[in-house]
Design a protein that fits this description.
By secondary structure, the protein is of the alpha/beta class. The chain has a domain of 187 residues: Vaccinia Virus protein VP39 (Rossmann fold), CATH 3.40.50. The chain has nine helices and 14 strands. Helix 2 runs antiparallel to helix 8 and helix 3 packs parallel to helix 4. The protein binds S-adenosylmethionine. The site of S-adenosylmethionine has 19 residues, from helix 2.
């Protein structure tokens, strides 16, 4: 038995400056085209909807990454010698088990740090994993990885993972900023494993974000529910349609909420009245698709050295392994 409690959870979201949060939302709504910060998809309901989306036949990315991880996890663990896995945007940590299993097989597994904005899921995963892996310590961090990375507990030989295409949900400048801050938090010789969805045919890409049972639509609209607790607005969810299209110039899927009618929405918290025309769209998510070169360039820019590139037989998903020199 370890002398330490197997589960520790730190919550940092309450430390956010409400004025800065309001300003970020306000600025996005006033941009052309209008946009909202993607992280507001994720309260506990948003995380659950995302888990259900991952089970859909048309949503191939999760299945593909999981299968790929199964084939490469032993190689990743052998190359990195990691004792600790820090996972940013850990969600339900389903695929994470593949890496934890490989670490457990070599008796290296000591510590797991799930880091996510969704508190419920961090707590759930922490308790599940200590029950599944003997001797494992879990130190969960509930926070925004664009603001709270310095709260990652310091430790031994680490592998930091960003799986599930999470990096592709960030605009290029935010992704670059995230990679640089990860690099600053890592010790020399630590490794980073980044999952990226690869560019493939448009029909397959768009089908993944336009399921017939409406789960992706519900996930998209969930942002409006989450925003109620942040800026106090009761949006009419029926007044918005879900839209997802591939933007080939930016090689990304763009998810939007389209106003089905003209709307005038007073938002006193933002000192703003939002006028939406019929058909006007608000950008809620991007999901960038990559090639190997597009994935490795920002890693190198942030100071990492790429050490391995893994892909599935159909070239739908990539995993870039890089090292901090
Ligand atoms: C696309 S899901 C991927 C989940 C999981 N890694 C997977 O592969 O299935 C993105 C995850 O990142 C989390 N997330 C999104 N933005 C975040 C942020 N700014 N800080 C921390 N977590 C964030 C979400 O709560 C969600 O669990």
């Amino acid at each position: 038995m370890s002398e330490h409690a197997p589960v520790t959870i730190d919550v940092h979201l309450n430390n956010q400056d409400p004025a800065a949060i309001r300003e970020e939302i306000r600025a996005g709504l006033l941009e052309t085209p209008r946009r909202l910060p993607t992280r507001y998809f994720y309260d506990d309901r948003g995380s659950e909807l995302f888990e259900q989306i991952c089970e859909l036949p048309t949503y191939y990315p999760t299945r593909t990454e999981h299968a790929l991880l199964k084939t490469v996890a032993d190689d990743v663990v052998a190359r990195t010698g990691a004792e600790e896995l820090v996972e940013l945007g850990s969600g339900a940590a389903t695929k994470t088990r593949t890496l934890l299993d490989a670490m457990a097989r070599t008796k290296q597994l000591k510590f797991y740090v799930p880091f996510d904005v969704s508190e419920g899921i961090v707590r759930r995963v922490a308790h599940e994993l200590v029950a599944e892996y003997e001797g494992l310590q879990v130190h969960g961090v509930v926070g925004d990885f664009l603001a709270h990375l310095e709260h990652i507990p310091q430790g031994g030989k680490r592998l930091v993972g960003i799986l599930g295409g999470t990096i592709g949900n960030l605009r290029p400048e935010s992704a670059a900023e995230l990679l640089s801050s990860i690099e600053r938090e890592m010790a020399s010789g630590d490794f980073l494993l980044v999952g990226v969805q690869l560019i493939t045919d448009t029909d397959r890409l768009e089908a993944a974000y336009n399921d017939s049972v409406g789960l992706t639509a519900a996930f998209n609209k969930n942002m409006l529910r989450v925003l109620k607790s942040v800026i106090g607005v009761d949006f009419d969810l029926d007044a918005f349609d879900h839209v997802a299209r591939f933007n080939s110039a930016e090689h990304r899927i763009e998810m939007r909420l389209r106003s089905v009618r003209e709307q005038v929405i007073p938002i006193p918290d933002l000192e703003l009245t939002l006028h939406l025309k019929e058909g006007e769209e608000i950008l809620t998510e991007i999901s960038t698709k990559y090639t190997r070169a597009l994935a490795e360039a920002p890693l190198m820019q942030a100071g990492f050295t790429p050490v391995a590139w893994y892909t599935d037989p159909d070239h739908l998903h990539g995993l870039a392994l890089a090292r901090k020199p």
